[in-house]
Task: inverse folding
């Protein structure tokens, strides 16, 4: 196995204990910050080359958001690392009971191509903050960014503890044969299964950030132009290649008629009359994805957009109508700049539609009525939820980000990243004195001894009143 | 296959009906469980005695008391555990509602183990119900009587469709694992843990694996040896050594090895009398297969104490092995029996190195008067949990998470952690449909002013 040497090297560094002191972790995290600053131009160029990403989008999603996570972590690290003391029973009052946050050891982060910096860097922040050694496997699909990360990142981090591995499916498969102490994977559900099965062989815990079809319900009572803007922004950001993008829209025929002109206007406001000329609209990452997404255009009828340019891997911001649940576009996560609209009669039907499918990473609901938003929230299940906007639940570092069911397991962002990459170890420190207090627990067992145990360790219902 | 499909299908339909979600319903089910434990105490104790020769007060305090405590805690805390948790907002979200919603996962599977057969299905079940799920319970077939009893009792007290018991052995469990669950909590050994996780991977089902390993117990020269050995004796020989967090082996300096043996010997007499076999408080090995397995481990070893066995009653006397070689069979697998090997080490450095060369254990124990040494032990090793100057006790602190790491497991439960294990923490952000002004900054055409916000 070509990676055995690398993994052992990192494991040896791990066992040496050098990643554990807070000062070390802070130094590595600060170096990551410098990487983001120094290489900003290269990051903009690489992501523009790989995905046609608008500089604005890159600054926002790949740099600013990473920096937010970095600062949040650096600001709070010492507090997060502290032992968490817990309440004790009467019998343990003189003991010390606490939760120690232990690093796992050598962890593997596998990142996808759609936000190629963000999706390895944000978990990496958590992994370093938690005191681990890390192997980073960026996506080979976003080629220029992969090269940038492989060449530049090692210069900023301790080479004994952090490494970047490049390659495609064969290399990743061999990498996964090694034993890791945690695996963090972002990508598609089928590959998520493969990763989890590989992890199972070594009993390695995992976090899987996967995907699905994120429904977006628009009720009849809403500010149509605001809805159109917020939905269009979320859908067409990064040319639709966002795991939490609104995948399809659910609304009544009436609402559709109002939304279409509003969506047309929003797209025009954002990207101008010919989005292919806009510097702010991205491209599909490669030919394979382009062909896949293009095929989906045959579902229903094109109401807005629909133009494509294969050489440029350009697909126009598109809205499809007359889409049936059985159409191809409703069978897979779109991951492209196409918004199909499915007509439903009312909110209940929308909720039933959502619940008849796999649980998505996000559910969106738009309504001027709080009640409607709350109903959709209460009666559906998803990784996360946003009412009256799209994507924004992702940006708040105090909210956990993760899926459920087919959309993933585990979570991260902010402190949740630190917790994900830490083992919470239950610790109890007792004294050697007061041995007489232990007598009731020792054999020979008796009812009398038992009575003492019960009295000193039980938890009574506050609502009950016991007369002794 | 069909039967399992039907059972899980029924549970899923029951969950989808939504009736397990209101807090009042959950509390009602928990109250019913409390009644069950109180009303059927005699039957439960009889099953535990039949399966493991656990006697009354012992069985009560180790299995029933713990369950009642979890029930009381759950009923008390459910409203606060289930309440949405508001989170810190930033400038962009100041006017919004941002919170974490605790939601049930759906249909969860609890696979129990045979060593604390009642506790290990009930404790997870309580948390799963508290979190609003439907639950399929698969008690261990090795502890037959308890499994049968649980299968009889639960339907008498709980909602029959939401909560089901499936009995059977490996074939039934294998079949069950082909079904889709929303979480699986498994207690048992690492080998089967791998099988469970692999089956779960097919459905992307999250798992909590409470496994085992060899929990080391380091005895420093600077400690009250009599007290240390007393506590170790208690934890090691309880349930005839069949406790996942029992101190598996001892690490100590050669100079105190014989004193350790002497102290444990004296304590054993105190606990079980001169004739251990006739003590009502000393358990038996659960079955002949495990009896033979443990017997095998004694081969070629220096028996300093004990070693007597009786196959008919699956009796193995409290046994200590001295000068054990790290490469011997008894040091390869989790003993899970009343055999205590002592491996000598010259220093705490050697002990730490020894521990770190092996798979991460479920528990780690250190006995010492030296606070710095204890700090070092904790800081330089990794284990599921640990106790200093005692054994087992970290597992009964209600607010400590109980779980393994590495080969000893993943995930944790007990108390609030069971609730969290069986819940989905859903991030919720609710914005105003108005206030579009702020949003305009993020829309294309790209504006760099946004960056400076």
Result:
């Amino acid at each position: 196995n070509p990676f055995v040497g690398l993994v052992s090297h990192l494991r040896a560094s791990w066992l040496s204990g050098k990643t554990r002191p807070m000062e070390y972790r802070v130094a590595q995290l600060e170096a990551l910050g410098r990487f983001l600053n120094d290489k900003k131009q290269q990051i903009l160029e690489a992501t523009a080359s790989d995905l046609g990403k608008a500089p604005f989008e890159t600054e926002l999603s790949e740099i600013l958001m990473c920096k937010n996570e970095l600062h949040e972590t650096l600001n709070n690290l010492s507090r997060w690392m502290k032992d968490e003391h817990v309440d004790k029973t009467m019998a343990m009052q003189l003991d010390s009971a606490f939760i120690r946050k232990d690093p796992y050891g050598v962890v593997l982060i596998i990142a996808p191509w759609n936000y190629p910096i963000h999706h390895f860097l944000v978990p990496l922040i958590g992994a370093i903050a938690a005191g681990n050694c890390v192997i980073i496997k960026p996506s080979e699909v976003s080629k220029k960014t992969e090269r940038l990360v492989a060449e530049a990142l090692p210069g900023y981090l301790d080479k004994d503890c952090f490494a970047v591995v490049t390659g495609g499916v064969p290399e990743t498969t061999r990498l996964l044969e090694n034993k890791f102490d945690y695996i963090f994977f972002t990508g598609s559900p089928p590959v998520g299964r493969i990763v989890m099965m590989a992890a199972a062989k070594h009993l390695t815990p995992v976090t899987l950030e996967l995907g699905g079809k994120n429904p977006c319900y628009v009720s009849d009572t809403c500010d149509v132009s605001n809805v159109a803007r917020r939905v269009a922004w979320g859908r067409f950001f990064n040319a639709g290649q966002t795991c939490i993008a609104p995948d399809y829209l659910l609304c009544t025929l009436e609402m559709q008629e109002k939304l279409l002109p509003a969506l047309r206007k929003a797209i025009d406001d954002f990207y101008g009359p010919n989005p292919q000329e806009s510097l702010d609209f991205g491209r599909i990452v490669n030919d394979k994805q382009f062909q896949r997404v293009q095929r989906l255009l045959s579902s229903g009828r094109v109401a807005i957009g629909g133009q494509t340019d294969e050489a440029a891997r350009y697909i126009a911001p598109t809205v499809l109508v007359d889409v049936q649940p059985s159409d191809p576009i409703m069978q897979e996560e779109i991951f492209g700049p196409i918004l199909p609209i499915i007509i439903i009669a009312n909110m209940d039907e929308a909720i039933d539609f959502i619940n008849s499918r796999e649980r998505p990473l996000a559910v969106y609901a738009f309504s001027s009525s709080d009640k409607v938003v709350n109903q959709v929230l209460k009666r559906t299940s998803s990784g996360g939820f946003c009412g009256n906007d799209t994507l924004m639940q992702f940006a708040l570092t105090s909210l956990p980000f993760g899926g459920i069911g087919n959309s993933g397991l585990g979570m991260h962002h902010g402190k949740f990243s630190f917790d994900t990459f830490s083992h919470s170890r239950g610790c109890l420190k007792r004294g050697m004195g007061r041995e007489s207090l232990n007598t009731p627990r020792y054999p020979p067992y008796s009812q009398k001894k038992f009575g003492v145990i019960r009295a000193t360790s039980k938890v009574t219902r506050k609502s009950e009143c016991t007369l002794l | 296959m069909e039967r399992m499909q039907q059972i899980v299908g029924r549970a899923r339909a029951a969950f989808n009906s939504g009736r397990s979600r209101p807090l009042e319903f959950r509390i009602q089910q928990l109250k019913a469980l409390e009644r069950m434990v109180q009303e059927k105490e005699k039957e439960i104790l009889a099953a535990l005695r039949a399966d493991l020769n656990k006697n009354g007060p012992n069985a009560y305090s180790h299995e029933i008391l713990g369950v009642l405590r979890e029930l009381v805690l759950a009923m008390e805390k459910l409203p606060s555990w289930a309440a949405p948790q508001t989170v810190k907002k930033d400038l962009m979200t100041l006017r919004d509602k941002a919170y974490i919603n605790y939601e049930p996962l759906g249909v969860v599977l609890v696979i129990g183990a045979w060593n604390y057969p009642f506790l290990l299905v009930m404790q997870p079940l309580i948390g799963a119900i508290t979190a609003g799920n439907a639950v399929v319970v698969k008690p261990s077939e090795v502890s037959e009587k308890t499994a049968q009893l649980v299968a009889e009792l639960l339907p008498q007290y709980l909602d029959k469709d939401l909560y089901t018991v499936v009995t059977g052995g490996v074939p039934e469990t294998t079949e069950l694992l082909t079904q889709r669950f929303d979480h699986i909590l498994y207690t048992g050994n690492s080998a089967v843990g791998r099988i469970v996780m692999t089956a779960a991977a097919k459905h992307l089902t999250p798992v909590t694996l409470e496994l085992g390993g060899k929990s080391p117990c380091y005895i420093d020269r600077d400690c009250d040896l009599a007290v240390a050995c007393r506590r170790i004796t208690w934890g090691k020989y309880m349930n005839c050594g069949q406790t996942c967090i029992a101190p598996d082996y001892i690490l100590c300096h050669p100079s105190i090895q014989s004193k350790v043996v002497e102290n444990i010997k004296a304590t054993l007499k105190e606990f079980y009398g001169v004739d251990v076999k006739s003590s009502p408080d000393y358990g038996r090995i659960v079955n002949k297969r495990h009896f033979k397995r443990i017997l095998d481990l004694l081969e070629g070893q220096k028996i300093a104490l004990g070693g007597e066995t009786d196959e008919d009653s699956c009796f193995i006397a409290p046994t200590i092995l001295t000068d054990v070689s790290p490469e011997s069979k008894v040091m390869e697998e989790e003993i899970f029996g009343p055999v205590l090997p002592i491996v000598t080490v010259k220093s705490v450095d050697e002990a730490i190195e020894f521990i770190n060369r092996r798979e991460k254990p479920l528990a780690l124990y250190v006995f010492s008067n030296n606070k710095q040494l204890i700090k070092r032990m904790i800081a330089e090793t990794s284990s599921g949990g640990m106790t200093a100057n005692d054994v087992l006790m970290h597992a009964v602190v209600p607010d400590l998470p109980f779980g393994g790491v590495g080969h000893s497991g993943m995930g944790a439960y007990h108390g609030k952690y069971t609730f969290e294990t069986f819940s989905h923490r859903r991030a919720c952000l609710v914005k105003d449909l108005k206030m579009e002004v702020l949003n305009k900054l993020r829309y294309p055409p790209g504006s760099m002013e946004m960056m400076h916000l």
